[in-house]
Structures
1.
Amino acid sequence: MFSTKRKKHVALGAVLASLLLMQSDLSFASQSDLERNEPCLRCHGMKTFGYVKPETGKLVNLSVSQAALDQADHQGNLCVDCHRGGYRKMPHPQHKVTADTCLECHEDERGFEKYRMNAITAHFKKSVHYQMQPEQFNCFSCHDPHAGRLHKMGDSTETVVEKSNQVCLNCHSTLLPFEESHAWLPNGQLHQKAVRCLECHTPRPSSVVHAIEPAAKAEKDCVACHSRDSILLTKLNKYRLGRGEDKLGFVNSVVMDDSYVLGMTRHSALDKLGIFAVALTVSGVSAHGIGRWFSRRRGKSS
Amino acid sequence: MNTESKTQWMLLYPLWLRAWHWTNALLFIILLTCGFSLHFADSGWTLVPFATARTWHNLAGLALTVGYLVFVLRNWTSGNIRHYKPDWRGWSSRLLRQAHYYGVEIFQGAAHPFPVRREQKFNPLQQLTYVCVVYLGLPTLIVTGLLLLRPELAPEAILGMAGLWLIAVVHYLAGVGLTVFLIMHIYLATVGKTLTSDLKKMITGWEEVTLADPR
């Protein structure tokens, strides 16, 4: 349809171009998008372009950066792929892009099955955000259609966590800073970098992302994560599937991209060794003590 | 007893030493129970909830560190360190002699082969163990513990694994080693002249010392 075919051409061109010119292919791709979005960017490409909405008195930012779009998940999509129905004309029609617009491309049947958009939409409808403020919340509250870029399978755990949390922190760092709302959680900085908000704020155990629950249902039990069958296995783990065996006999090491998680990353041989050493010592001293007791009794009676 | 010409009562365990010893004993118990509860969090055998265990383990670990520094300094300046300096002449045969006592002679009611002296209150095995515990085990435990407390200070990677791993494993093994020591230490406290004489000594500080070298 809109993108796959064109992407192939672009890729082919880029390979040729870089072979001939030894130059990066990025400018090549963006050049053609730039040209094709030119009719819109003439106005919307300006760095400052917006107006104050009379009803609300709020500034509506109408500026869109092609450079950002080139780096986003929707790179290669044209403005008119999403903004359909006469946006080439002025004044524009007053179409709103809705969740239905997203589904038009992301409908499960149309080569986008892997995103399970219908399931995501159903989960989103259950989320605390939609339940609390159905008018205010939609997909693009969290996913910037022009610049958003999610992590991909195979990214390091660090990147996954950072990108995922950034989505939530966009709003929640101003609503109430993490350090304050999560003061009960020690090593706050470390946890914020090591686990996603979603670990604790979505149903467990499951890999569901969009059914964010009310705060009262969030995970507060440390051992839920700090244990061998950690909930992280069903959550963060999905990015690690097929990434190889656990290293040097450590349980759950690959899951966390080699970082050490107290109580979760464990070595069964070392665990057994520790217990064995202590048990051996206890039985050793007990035997010695009993021996002394007997020999003393013998000494007394003789 | 004091009437006997060859022995004399001496204050071999001054107050600072006893204070350190018994604080350490308490801290060991706290660190052990909490450390177990953290490492084996899901075992069903934990005595302390995870979050509480973390707080107490951190506090006790810091206290242990402070106590350790005080001990090392005071041990040195007070001259008590003389008991920790091995006499290398015939060292290994004296070790074997002591081991033979624990393994065989003790059951025959024989006397201790190396009675307490003013210059050397530990027997050779005891000395070796204490030197290992105080100058090897404890520093290892403390340094790795502090790194786990401040993971951002740990080296990024050791041997291709996140630095924290090796540190955590070493900390765990040091903890196991010192637990083994603790058990043996408590048991061996009962093999003095009488069952409780060593315990009393660690409370009062006074010990009966042999004046002449028996060798």
Note: The interface with chain B takes residues 184, 186-187, 190, 221-223, 226-229, 247-248, 250, 253, 258-260, 262-263, 265-267, 270-271, 273-274, 277-278, 281-282, 285, 288-289, 291-292, 295-296, 299 of chain A (CB under 8 Å).
2.
Amino acid sequence: MSTAFLLNGRAVEADGHPMSRLLDVLREQLGHTGTKEGCGEGECGACTVRLDGSPVLSCLVPLFQCAGRRIETVEGITAAPEGPLRDALERFVATGGVQCGACTPGIVVTLASLLASNATPSREEVRTALAGNLCRCTGYEGILRALAPAEPER
Amino acid sequence: MNGIGASPPRPDGFAKVSGAARYLDDLSLPGMWHGATLRSPHAHARIRSIAWDAALAPDGAVCVTVGDLPGPNGVQLIDDGWPILAGAFTHHVGEPVALVAAPTRLAAQQALQAFTVTYEPLDAVLSLEAAEALPPLYQLGMDSGDVDAALARADLVVEGEYRTGHQEHIYIECNGMIASYAEDGALTVLGSMQCPYYVQKALTHALGLADEQVRVRATTVGGGFGGKEDFPSAIALHAALLARACGRPVKLVYDRHEDIVCTSKRHPTLVRHRTGVTRDGRLAALDIEILMDGGAYTTLSSVVLSRALLHSFGPYRCADVRIRARALRTHTAPNSAFRGFGAPQVEFAIERQMDRIAHRLGLDPLEIRLRNAVAPGDRLPTGQILDAGTSALPCLEEVARRTRFRERRQELEAARARRAAEGDEDQNGAEPRRGIGLSLYFHGAGFTGNGERMMKSPVTARLLPDGRIEVLTAMTDMGQGCSAVFPQIAAAAGGLLPEDVTFAEPDTAEVPDSGPTVASRTTMIVGGLIARVTAALRDRVLEGLPGHTVRDGWIESPAGRVERFRDAARRLRAEHGPVELTLRHEPPAWQTFDETTYRGAAYPTYAWGADVVEVEVDPDTLAVRPLQVTAVCEVGRAIHPTLCAGQIEGGTLQALGWALLEEMKLEDGRYLNDRLATYVIPTILDSPRIDVHLLESHRDGGGPFGGPFGAKGVGELPMDGGAPAVAQAIENATGIGVPAIPATPERLLAWQRAGQTPGGVR
Ligand code: FES
Ligand code: FES
């Protein structure tokens, strides 16, 4: 069975069972391996993509729900970033927001959504937005330094 | 700015941010099949029979059982006592019993249904107490002075028993490997790993192949923390056996559940202390017994136990010391390497014991540490005389100053006394209780004892045709950032620009065996070799140019700039053909260690740290929320301060997770919380603000203490300090004694009911 949707602005068709996980369709069928699996059950956020502009966990989204909708992955979101997102991505690397990088695509997608509605989030707003994204490497400090530059730096 | 002490952006940063970085599961080879593993449901059982009904399996699926192994049934690490597949017996839940490969991941899972295994369950040993009476996997001891006499003389003898639990690594990228055979029988394995040469050794040993026939390449590693030190060797073997059976490349990737069920964890540990102290709070005798739960097979337990022994006395002075350490055998998956490698468990125990002693003597936690902390020139119980970079006191003083520890603690104690006087200590809906705690810790960097001397790790540098220097090491960047730090070291040591230097990927076909990416040795030991070999290759280019130096990528004579280094190097390469140098690590001659008596210098140097943690405890639920951590760490020299602080921030949060949240519950040998929904690690909302302050002990131009430019290993250090500081803070907030971690609300309630106080059981 084939399902049509927009992937990073391009029309695509995916074959598969309607209950296939969007995560697998993206990674295995459409070659978008930037989206990662960290748990497969909605706990880690590594698989976050945007569905019609809102962050969702692609390990929990069945393919049929994507029909006719807009999916954006980390590849699309970071291809030509503008404004606050571009600045944030640059700072993200510079301030130690990335270590192993396995959590990073999910965090970038979540942050892109936050920044789209709030260009200068506070530390607390960033923490709330990232509540569903686990990072085992950074202790989250490097991530917060990148996003809440108003905080005093060491 | 890219020099030592600058923080250039990591070279893999944008690829990771944009999703372009390729991790193992992002790769696919033509014709590749997928593997799956049949695992034991029993903690201990005899395997009566294994039957495979091909009719029940998807078309073409192949299976591998223990009878198909071409060589010894052992994963070669220190020895090969860890079975590749269970033989006549299974010794833990999740032990691999058989393997399958099929064209898709789903088909491989379905193929597992084609097995019928008959088990005869046997009694299992599932606690340290039960294991204590049985022969250990490994044991060690160390004696210094006369402990019994010193205990008899002491003004006070304090006893304590401290426990820590399993901890799962939860690297966000699960373990995975791809194995493929070429037509000539050569094997290539790709995977997520810390130690490519460990994997190669395991493959050659079990498959009867020569070194040249086995190529191992590390892909981008999505976190390791020790969890990808030994385990990848087993998975690589499984993938290779399946590739051999089906004649195609095979990918074997664990999902989170499988990864938690079967991979190694941090050793649960019980430490018993009996400490003699003088009236004024000085340590007179330390009698220490360490029991570590090694799980079913020894894997790396002997070396974990060794590091545990060598950190169990803490960063304190004491001449009369007796330590007995045993790794015990239980029926769980083997416990093995996890950041800190035995040290966090024993440093939790000694720090708790120091707090108990302070409580008995009416001293505050800072004072007891100030009175006992080691200083330059002091001796450790092993006899090692400590170098000038011994920074226990500077760390302690700095963290106390920054946090106003003493004043803050007095304020909180006064508030608690006031509440008690007003009788609202136990009122429902009362304000959260605040508490503050402090810890002092140290970590020996590099391999323990004679490990580095035996390995003599090599690093190679060669001139490329374009005049750049290529450096070859086997180190993997699992996130810690050696891909950023190594070029900084090489450029600074050679007087070169970062773009004059390039690094080879960790691939056993290309790079020499510069040892595993473990033990906080990457910057200090291998980085030191990189500095030496780069400088030596630069000198080779400068041969015949007396009085010349290289600075900022230019060859300079006393009169000024002569030419770009790269131009001269390119010429030399064109005229002479390949120019290549290999140097090996040689520990300083004074660093000798006796592995039978445990006397001598176990580590070339130590990194030091002190933490202050402030927590809030809900008086109704006893839920603990860490609010603020201040970590002061002495690292010799921070080559890349942002990455260095990142290690400390991340390690500190792992320590807090271990101390507060991460509880592995077992029932009949099965981990009950074997999913990320139930094994809880800190989210950003659980995390305190972590302030890191780096101290440096290096002298100009490097130092006698550490590695390149004076840098000490730092990756594991921050794992040692968080848990004891948080335990002390909980005691300060609640008055409930915390003899074990994780300090979950359920346990705090039980301890409160049992009369646990900071001074022991009431
Ligand atoms: S993989 Fe989807 S939330 Fe973890
Ligand atoms: S950078 Fe490794 S999990 Fe976040």
Note: Residues 104-117 of chain A form the longest helix (14 residues).
